[in-house]
Request: fold
Amino acid sequence: MKLNFSFGNKRPNKNQLIILFLVLSVIIAGLSKCSGVNEKSLWELLDELQRKFIPQGPINELIIKDPELLNRRIKRDVDRAIERVTPEYDRIIREADKRLKPRYLEEKNDESLCYTKECKALAPPMRMCSPVVEGIDC
Reply:
């Protein structure tokens, strides 16, 4: 007695993927013509719906096999990840800007270096100190 038992996800064969791709292409092209929505947008909608409801289905295999559909999926995932992390990144930068804000120090005007009234009338020199470097007259 011989048993054919396989573990894991059973992948559709090549003929099934070709038929599925043709059927979906015709349906999406028809919807695009009728509704005026871009075909790329409809493929992306189909991809997001199948990822939410049937993540390991044959449509997922179809999208993974097609380089253009896969590239659009990757771009959407990367854009979504960037949008998710941007508020945290902005908060970290704001805190660092507050903590690492440079300090300005005004020094006393050394009038012994000036010999004219115009030079003595100038404002005292100003120096900027970095908050990172400690000491050094800051």
About this structure: The two ends are 87 Å apart (CA to CA).
